[in-house]
Inverse folding.
């Protein structure tokens, strides 16, 4: 019966294991579902709407196939539509019936939509067109006297357009040519991008309001083999329990089988009846035997000599006969000839007894190994999950954005990536002293300062190159919250490995959707300065107008007031409004002026020359970004002009040891004098209106702008 139960256990184990394996193989459905995009009319770009990607739950996988380089990027839908303004593209969206619709958008339609959605204009598209020829006709038409009869006619009725109907296509054609050639590769507008050759696979999980653009280089048609896949739930919670139960039944069956064999061996089963007991042996009196028989017995070989014909005593009940009856023994009970045989019998019986134990161990090892293999091969998808229905508490936001809050210009990760690209580009430009390359990432005062630095390094190779922008730790990302252009971002970055590199505060601006961010203000932060509290990067902030009355000083007046504090010192009415760091900077500027005067006196030129100094705001407008305490961080630029002129017609101004003046002017002296200009880029923390706090200096940078001979 034990064998029957063992067989039943084996059958159950096989069934359970087979059922568990079947759930993970033949009964398991596909792991993904896929939706293909059918593009009928080729275009340089494909805009994959975010609703298509979120048609099914779970992470999305974008699959694009085609010969050559393939580019894909995702970003805000409104930003992508603004970037595509004036370009022909295929717009992939979800229809009312849930099917995927592909609509071709020509350049004219995208230009209208782009202007409406971006709130900015397709002006950047019209500008290049205007440079080509026909477009300038539109500008005078609108800029000239509005009393002209043609202007109202054009505004009231499109019928007025019939006259230049033949010219319209000519005007549109150059616009399309200028826009379709834009490459999306390397744009700062994308949140992230992917590139590959022949086949592109990108895993993403996009939120609402984010779409994907697919292209090549902006000129060739975009790939048409596009598909989106989503993962399906392939969990089999019964597979693990079934396999474990099968392994347990297999182990039970093995145990039952071993017990059945053990029981059978102990019972030894049915046996045949053995022979009866032999008669007892008695000693033979050889002397009484006839001579012939006695002679035959005496000729029998002795017990010590080996002979194959020596009879073997019969066994009874599986045991050897008494040793006293064994031929060759001199005395009854002698064991001289049977010691080896008995030892071998003992060893044989020990081997027979240990055989079943070893076999049971060999049978148990595969069972344990199989159980362990099944247990480790089952992933979490093969087991039931408990407690998933209990939602975890979500943190409460400390800052609540208003309903009409605009999205930030960039995300924190996007800003860090842009800063790394800016730093890398400037490093390459500084190494090659390529001002055109630097101009791709610099603008305004920062670009002007770089131009002079390259000129000095060309003439004076030993001039120390400008420090690179540190990107190790970006501590502050303060983007402007807007959906229009231009867009501004303020950053504070530090170097984690080099203490000699000071932290850098900079502002960078993106003028339109097709331009990259350029740094326009940049200064080194003082170690004693405390950065004000600003909004989180995901919330963003707002730009404060130059004439805002909500600050203690209007941003437009800040540069003028600091210039007055420099010129007048403590006599200035605005001197007390600046903190100690600002006053120290103003004093250092005055000290440098006094050093110039003293240098002329030391060289005996005090009576034959005169100096003048003037510090004024630069032409660039201030950049003001609001802080959490209703104040603002204001970036301004000032130009400090230093002039040295002779007081006598016979006197000349010699540059002496001033190698920079010689390098920038190309001469060693001037009869009418020389003018040197320095630029100061300053970042201030301006408090709110009515606050008793002073204006605090955050960062400063001084650059030599020019040295010019007065003519």
């Amino acid at each position: 019966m034990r064998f029957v139960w063992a067989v039943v256990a084996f059958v159950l184990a096989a069934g359970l294991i087979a059922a568990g394996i079947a759930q993970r193989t033949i009964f398991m459905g596909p792991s993904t579902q896929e939706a293909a995009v059918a593009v009928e009319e080729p275009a340089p770009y494909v805009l994959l709407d975010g609703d298509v990607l979120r048609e099914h739950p779970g992470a999305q996988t974008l699959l694009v196939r085609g010969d050559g380089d393939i580019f894909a990027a995702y970003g805000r839908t409104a930003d992508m539509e603004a970037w595509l303004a004036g370009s022909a593209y295929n717009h992939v969206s979800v229809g009312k019936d849930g099917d995927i619709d592909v609509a071709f958008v020509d350049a004219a339609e995208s230009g209208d939509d782009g202007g409406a959605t971006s709130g900015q204009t397709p002006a950047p598209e019209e500008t290049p067109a205007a440079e080509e020829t026909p477009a300038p006709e539109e500008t005078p038409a609108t800029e000239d006297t509005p009393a002209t009869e043609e202007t109202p006619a054009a505004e009231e009725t499109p019928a007025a357009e019939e006259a230049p109907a033949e010219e319209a296509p000519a005007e549109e054609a150059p616009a399309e040519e200028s826009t379709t050639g834009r490459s999306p590769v390397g744009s700062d507008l994308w949140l992230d991008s992917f590139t590959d050759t022949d086949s592109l696979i990108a895993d993403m999980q996009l939120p609402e309001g984010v779409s994907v653009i697919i292209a090549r280089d902006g000129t060739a048609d975009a790939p048409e083999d596009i598909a989106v896949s989503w993962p399906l739930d392939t969990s089999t919670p019964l597979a693990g329990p079934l396999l474990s139960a099968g392994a347990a039944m297999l182990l039970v069956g093995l145990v039952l089988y071993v017990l059945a064999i053990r029981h059978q061996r102990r019972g030894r089963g049915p046996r045949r009846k053995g022979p009866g007991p032999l008669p007892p042996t008695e000693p033979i009196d050889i002397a009484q035997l006839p001579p012939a028989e006695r002679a035959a017995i005496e000729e029998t070989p002795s017990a010590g000599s080996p002979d194959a014909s020596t009879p073997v005593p019969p066994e009874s009940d599986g045991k050897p006969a008494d040793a006293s009856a064994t031929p060759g023994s001199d005395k009854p009970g002698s064991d001289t000839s049977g010691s080896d045989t008995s030892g071998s019998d003992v060893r044989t019986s020990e081997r027979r007894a240990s055989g079943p134990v070893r076999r049971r161990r060999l049978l148990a090892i595969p069972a344990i190994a199989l159980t362990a293999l099944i247990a480790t091969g089952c992933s979490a998808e093969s087991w039931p999950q408990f407690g998933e229905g209990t939602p975890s508490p979500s943190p409460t936001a400390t800052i609540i954005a208003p309903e009409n809050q605009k999205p930030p210009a960039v995300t924190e990760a996007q800003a860090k990536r842009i800063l790394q690209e800016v730093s890398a580009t400037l490093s390459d430009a500084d190494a090659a002293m390529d001002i055109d390359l630097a101009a791709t990432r610099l603008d305004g005062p920062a670009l002007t300062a770089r131009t002079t630095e390259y000129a000095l390094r060309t003439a004076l190779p030993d001039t120390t190159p400008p420090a690179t922008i540190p990107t190790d730790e970006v501590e502050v990302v303060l983007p402007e919250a807007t959906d229009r252009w231009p867009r501004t971002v303020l950053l504070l970055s530090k170097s984690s490995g080099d203490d000699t590199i000071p932290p850098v505060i900079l502002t960078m601006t993106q003028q339109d959707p097709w331009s990259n961010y350029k740094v326009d203000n940049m200064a080194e932060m003082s170690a004693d300065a405390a950065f004000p509290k600003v909004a989180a990067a995901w919330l963003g902030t707002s730009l404060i107008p130059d004439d805002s009355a909500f600050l203690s000083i209007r941003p437009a007046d800040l540069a003028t007031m600091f210039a007055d504090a420099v010129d007048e010192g403590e006599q200035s009415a605005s001197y007390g409004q600046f903190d100690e760091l600002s006053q120290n900077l103003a004093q250092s500027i005055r000290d440098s002026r006094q050093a110039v005067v003293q240098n002329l006196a030391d060289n005996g030129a005090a009576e034959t020359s005169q100096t003048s100094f003037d510090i004024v705001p630069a032409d660039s407008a201030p950049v003001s970004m609001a802080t959490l305490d209703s104040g603002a961080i204001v970036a301004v630029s000032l130009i400090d002009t230093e002039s040295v002129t002779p007081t006598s017609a016979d006197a000349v101004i010699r540059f002496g040891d001033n190698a920079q003046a010689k390098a920038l002017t190309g001469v060693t002296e001037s009869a009418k004098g020389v003018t040197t200009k320095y630029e100061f880029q300053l970042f201030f923390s301006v408090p709110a209106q009515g606050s008793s706090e002073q204006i605090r200096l955050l960062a400063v940078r001084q650059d030599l702008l020019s040295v010019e001979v007065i003519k």
User: Anything to note?
Assistant: Residues 304 and 499 are 103 Å apart (CA to CA). The two ends are 123 Å apart (CA to CA). The chain is about 35% helix and 20% strand. Residues 339-377 form the longest helix (39 residues).
